[in-house]
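User: Can you help me understand a structure? I only have the sequence.
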Amino acid sequence: MDQGTWRLILSPALTGASNMALDEALLESASARRQPPTLRLYRWQPACLSLGHAQPIGQADGARLTQMGWDLVRRATGGRAILHVDELTYSITAPIDHALAAGGVLGSYRMLSQGLLAGLGRLGIQADTAPEQSLGEADRSNPVCFEVPSAHEITAGGRKLIGSAQLRRVSGVLQHGSLPLQGDLGRICLALSYDDEAERDAAAERVRRRATTLQELLGAAVSWDRAAEAMAEGFRLALGLRLEEGEPQTDEIMRAAELERLRYAHPEWSRRAGAHDSAQA
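Assistant: Let's start by predicting it. Here is the structure, written out as tokens:
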């Protein structure tokens, strides 16, 4: 299955607003066919709570975020809150008519999941995809992405391991997702609003029971570099990609800076919550 030559970008750590702006700039490039489809692997500095496009801002606790020195950003994709820390994040951008974007959101999820599963296999993890019926069972009022796997997201030992979201536009598709490497996944509840501390503690314990990290599965820490190498190789082998390492081009960097200033770093964007393009938590 030859899916052609793709660009591989290994990004340095960026803020939440910079990361989301660059993903959208890459989506615009792929949509206009100015650049080839791109697999980008990246990280976050400082830690950042990201909200889904339509998620109520009131579910984030701004005072606690400030106290802990964590960023806040609203994604262009749907879904629920993710705390981006101690993780590897991937994004895929391609024209809407690319074979890996075929079949709508769930159809392309199925295909792209094969790359994620193959990457995890190279790290020694036997993973699977969540069944379709779990999508309808998910409690949509729950603010935490990693508490319940949606259809075709990645699980290991019955616990969620990779959470992903997809944005589809007329001419392009963006899918990005988070692979926790280590740390306490219950930390996200420190940045969310609850009626009292007992409710916060109970929510954190549910997340720990229902989600997991690479370190917990393997019993040893996995570096970002090792995880990135495995995931890139997994996409290459499972999806028939030829990956050529590159960098964002000047026009993409300039567009990302514009998007960051006008949207992702702008307080009004973070506070808003409304309708969005076709997306899946």
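Now, to help you interpret it: Residues 134-138, 274-281 have pLDDT under 50 and may be disordered. The CA atoms of residues 64 and 191 lie 6 Å apart. Let me know which part you'd like to focus on.
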